[in-house]
Structure prediction request, 77 residues.
Amino acid sequence: MAFYYIIISNVYTNPMETKETKPKCPKCQTGHLTRRAKRPLWMKTLLFWLPIKRYECGSCYRRSYVFGTYSTGNPIG
Prediction:
């Protein structure tokens, strides 16, 4: 059991120490886009080559698109 804890503690990272900033929700301006949401089928098939990801706000549960990587992405409406 102690060996298992050592392996886990080596790969554990504190979320407060990461440099990623979560984008704020463009709708409510209070929550952060934390959860990934499924994209529609037409977007998966036609726009698969674009780095657009769909996230859900943790406060108002509305879905927004983020263009680019998660740490530097800007919400799109």
Q: What stands out?
A: The first strand starts at residue 33 and ends at 36.
